[in-house]
């Protein structure tokens, strides 16, 4: 343990609310590390920016205007865990705003393999860039990165967490809620809805971040459907209890609860986190998949979502059902991420006033 490890361990002991102050600058969101940082005002603001960005980018003149907004800034994507959507949508989001991007996608091409500490590598990245977007297997790595740059360097650049181990994926939750808000636009938005989350809730960072984000909405109910070994962990459950968000647990079969949901959020089994290879395959997940024959139980105006990648949780025959929202959800990721970056750099007024 070096001195930084000791100080970070002290920092981690702080209550969450206290820790989150480290990720703000002048009372505004600076780093995007965990969903608990977001309040309704920030979320609504990001979605308003998202809608403006989409609309303005429809024309060449508008798109060129937007590309001018952050053309003086550079972003680095440090993604050392596999990623297609999150990486590409962030890369594209940067380009929408005119930012130049650079990337490291494998630690084997980083000086970390020469024995450089992660902290030193991170400080090096921050020397060349104005924003670091990262995905890392370490569940504390994004938090430590933001803490280190904000408290121990004179050149803090914002950190955006694009997935931290099995813990959180806050920008996925932002795009998921955007998709939900849009899908329910004619039904009063997300407030008052029942969200069913299904699959590997224990190690799925998307459902964890999405659950935390629910504190910002009124009269939400959650149903957690999973085989027993993959149940939602205690930390999220006690958070929901603290915020008086009712949740129900279903461990027998997805079909038992399908008809109760306004949104059905499917996830894959996160077997990369197995302690011994093959652990997950010994769990019977067969009753937690969505098949065409189940669709009669799904409400007529419900939506079906998935953060992707999918395996067999949703039969491809369901893709053409108007309730299937996952491809749209994927596209929403790029726009909401562009909006988040504009918000962090505090340049969104230019977009809103266009
Ligand atoms: C998810 C992830 O990486 O956490 N994918 C994503 O970012 N869209 C979900 C998953 O890998 O199952």
Task: Explain what this protein looks like in three dimensions.
With 354 residues, the chain is of the alpha/beta class. The chain folds into two domains: 3-168 and 333-352, Rossmann fold (3-Layer(aba) Sandwich); 170-271 and 283-331, 3-Layer(aba) Sandwich (Rossmann fold). 38% of the residues lie in helices and 14% in strands. It contains twelve helices and eleven strands. The protein has helices spanning 3-12, 16-20, 40-56, 60-69, 85-96, 118-128, 141-152, 170-183, 205-213, 234-242, 326-344, 348-352, and strands spanning 24-25, 28-29, 74-79, 100-104, 131-136, 159-164, 194-198, 221-225, 247-250, 263-266, 303-305. Helix 8 crosses helix 9. N-carbamoyl-L-aspartate is lined by residues 85-86, 163, 169, 172, 205-206, 267-268, 307-309.
């Amino acid at each position: 343990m070096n001195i930084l490890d000791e100080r970070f361990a002290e920092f981690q002991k702080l209550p969450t609310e206290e820790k989150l102050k480290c990720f703000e600058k002048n009372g505004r969101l600076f780093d995007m590390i965990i969903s608990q940082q977001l309040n309704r005002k920030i979320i609504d603001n990001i979605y308003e920016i998202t809608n403006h960005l989409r609309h303005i980018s429809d024309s060449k003149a508008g798109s060129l205007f937007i590309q001018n907004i952050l053309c003086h800034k550079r972003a680095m994507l440090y993604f050392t865990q596999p990623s297609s959507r999150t990486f590409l949508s962030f890369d594209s989001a940067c380009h929408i705003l005119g930012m130049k991007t650079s990337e490291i996608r494998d630690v084997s091409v980083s000086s970390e393999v020469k024995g450089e500490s992660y902290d030193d590598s991170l400080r090096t990245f921050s020397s060349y860039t104005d924003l670091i977007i990262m995905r890392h297997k370490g569940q504390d790595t994004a938090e430590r990165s933001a803490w280190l740059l904000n408290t121990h360097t004179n050149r803090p650049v914002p950190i955006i967490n694009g997935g931290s181990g099995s813990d959180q994926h806050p920008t996925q939750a932002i795009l998921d809620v955007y998709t939900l808000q849009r899908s329910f636009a004619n039904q009063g938005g997300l407030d008052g809805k029942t969200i069913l989350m299904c699959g590997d809730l224990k190690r799925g960072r998307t459902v964890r971040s999405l659950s935390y984000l629910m504190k910002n909405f009124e009269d939400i109910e959650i149903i957690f459907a999973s085989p027993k070994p993959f149940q939602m962990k205690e930390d999220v459950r006690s958070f929901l209890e603290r915020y008086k968000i009712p949740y129900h647990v279903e461990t027998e079969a997805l079909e038992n609860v399908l008809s109760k949901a306004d949104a059905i959020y499917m996830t894959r089994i996160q077997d990369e986190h197995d302690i011994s290879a093959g652990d997950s395959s010994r769990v019977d997940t067969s009753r937690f998949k969505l098949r065409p024959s189940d669709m009669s139980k799904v409400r007529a105006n419900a939506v079906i979502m998935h953060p992707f990648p999918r395996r067999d949780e949703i039969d491809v025959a369901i893709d053409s059902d108007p309730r299937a929202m996952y491809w749209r959800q994927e596209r929403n990721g790029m726009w909401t991420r562009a909006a988040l970056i504009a918000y962090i750099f505090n340049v969104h007024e230019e977009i809103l006033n266009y």
